[in-house]
Give the backbone structure.
Amino acid sequence: MFAMIVPNLQAKKKKVDIYELSLEQNLEDPEINDDKQAQQVRQYQFKVAVDLKKQGYDVELMREDEVIVLTVQAGVLFNPNDTVLSELGKKTLSPLKKYLDNPGFYKMVLVMHSDNTGSEDYTLKLSRDRVNSVFNFIERIASVDFVVPYALGSTDPLEENNSVEKRKRNRRLEIYLIPGEVMISQAKKGKININLLKTK
């Protein structure tokens, strides 16, 4: 009897507030549970990653090749100890606008890191101000409905902070291009195209 009632409930999928999620949760959401959809997404993401690599970005894939990670050195985006995005920084980030032109196709997560020069409060404030500066720039050129900024300060270094070169590598912005519901919906239909208008 219970099984007969369930289909009539039409339970709606709970809407996730991406701004309420932790970094780890945002990197895992939305999940792609269908193998065929996941394969379509992986193939598409690989092509995008190759294209970004050709443009000179430092590119990796994670989450079984479903998520693209771009790493941009903070020195490319900001002058030392500054929080105002440089002209080179704007030029570096501007090509990413096209990944936000179709809201919901991607979720973009911005994660700013610093080295450990200065107090914990200082490095956290520096990375927070910098990621806000990046977010504000993106807001001027594209929709930020699916852009989430995080500031981690010096808590997640790539290397030990024991040389100038290693500290330089630790000062970075990571940009995660995560498949959004629009991309996943397109994958279900068998064709992914960022230029298709969002359909309801």
Notes: DSSP finds eight helices and five strands in the chain.
